Structure formats: C-alpha cells, structure tokens
Amino acid sequence: MILSGDNAILIAMACRNLPRELRTKGVIWGTAGAIGLRMVLGAVIIFLLKIPCLQAAGALLLLWIAVKLLIQENDHNDVNAPNRLWQTVRTIVLADAVMSLDNVVAVAGMSQGKPGLLWFGLLVSIPLVVYGSRLFLALLDRYTIILYAGAGILGWTAGKLLIHDPVLLSSLKGWGIPPLLLNENFVAALIAAIVLVAGWLINDRQKRKPTGREAQIL
Questions:
Q1: Which of 3, 22, 134, 207 is the most buried (most CB within 10 A)?
Q2: What is the DSSP letter of 218?
Q3: Which superkingdom is the protein from (predicted)?
Q4: Quick one: which of 98, 95, 86 has its CA closest to 29?
Q5: Which positions ≥6 away from 175 have C-beta within 8 Å?
Q6: Contact between residue 102 and residue 164 where contact means Cβ atoms under 8 Å apart
Q7: What is the pLDDT of residue 128?
C-alpha cells in the first residue's frame, strides 16, 4: 500500500503524548497531511532527488525525529494542547516527507503516469492508516516495548535512506570503506541501534531527575 504500517507507527508514536481527547484529531490530521504530501511529491520527486545529498540530509532528520518520538513525556498538561496538536501534525508530515523519498518514485512508476491511480491508492490507504494508528496508540499505552520497536523501524528506514544517497555512497567508496560497512542492512541496523540507545539513555536520565515535590524539597 502507498501508506503502510510504518506510516501508522509513525503517526501513533507522534500522537501518543497528546491529551486523549486530541489523539483522534492528531491521527486524522496527520494522515491527511501525509496524503496531501504524497500527492505533491509524486509530481516533483524526480526533481527533488537531483538535489545533492538530499537523501542523506533527510536520513539524519528522520534519525533525530525517531529519537525525539522515543523520548517519553510525563507531562500531558492541556494548557498548550492546540499548539501541541499542530506541532504533532507538523512532525508527522515532516517525517513522512523524508520516509517517502526512497519509495515514491516506484509508486509513481506503478501508477503508469496516471495521477488518478496514485490518488486512488492514497484514498484507499486512509482508513487502513487511521485505524492502524489508533490500534498502535492503544498498544503503546500498555506496552512500552512497542514504542522502542517503532523507533527502531524509523531508525532502520533512516539507515537505508542514508546509504541509498548516491553522492554519499560514491564518496564513501572513494574513501576505501569496506563493502561490508556499506551494506544497506548493516547501515540500517547500525542507525536503528543508535536511535534505540540514544532514546534509552535520554529516557533513563529523565527518570533520574527529581520532579514535582521532590524537586522543591531539593
């Protein structure tokens, strides 16, 4: 599908820190933003991919987003809830833009140059992503391990995007980097590991910080 499981995981992870009454809106607006973005990218992606190191830059951005989404927030204060909603939607759209760089060309090719086929595929994807995101959200509330699994998937995607950048790959080969270290699965696993370790360290440090009454006493 044009929008698939990794999109649902991304949307669920981004929406999990929203107040419960705004989560459905976050899922719907995030999905709508991703759909609109795919429609635009389908038309201009060929030109975008000509920009040097665009995929490498996108991979680093996705790595940062994956770590950011992995950090667990304990503050669900509703004071700035509307702002948090739109910040969440922007995060979803930005991450989806990066994730789509590596596959939207193939999708456009499968549509055989007919925008109607691309748009039909996007529309069919909407209910699957919305319900998939809500299911992942319910699971995230119960099982923290799923949060780390989702972050690992985003990190894996960032790694593959990074090693697929033609300019970066050519430069690394010119520097005499062993082929094993340039294997896409090795790089993807390495980036996924970096995301998971960084997120775990940040979460562990936050747990050790005094909060609320403890901070006042100190």
A1: 3
A2: -
A3: Bacteria
A4: 86
A5: none
A6: yes
A7: 73
CA–CA gap between residue 21 and residue 144 (Å, rounded): 21
Nearest Cα to Cα of residue 23 among 78, 94, 72, 100 = 78
DSSP state of 209: S
Q: Which domain holds residue 201?
A: 5-217
CA angle 186/144/156 to nearest 5° reads 20
Cβ contacts of 214 within 8 Å, gap of 6 or more = none
Structural domain tally of the chain? 1
CA distances for 210 relative to 143, 198, 204, angstroms: 24, 21, 12
Task: Give pLDDT tens digits along the chain (218 positions).
Answer: 445 667 788 888 888 888 888 888 888 888 888 777 777 776 666 566 677 788 888 888 889 988 988 886 554 444 455 677 888 888 888 887 777 765 555 555 445 455 555 566 666 666 777 778 888 888 887 887 888 888 998 899 889 888 888 888 888 888 888 888 889 899 999 999 999 999 889 888 877 776 554 444 44
Residue 201, Cβ density class (10 Å: 0-12 exposed, 13-18 middle, ≥19 buried): exposed
Give CA–CA dist 218/213, Å, rounded: 9
DSSP tally for the chain: helices H, then strands E: 10, 0
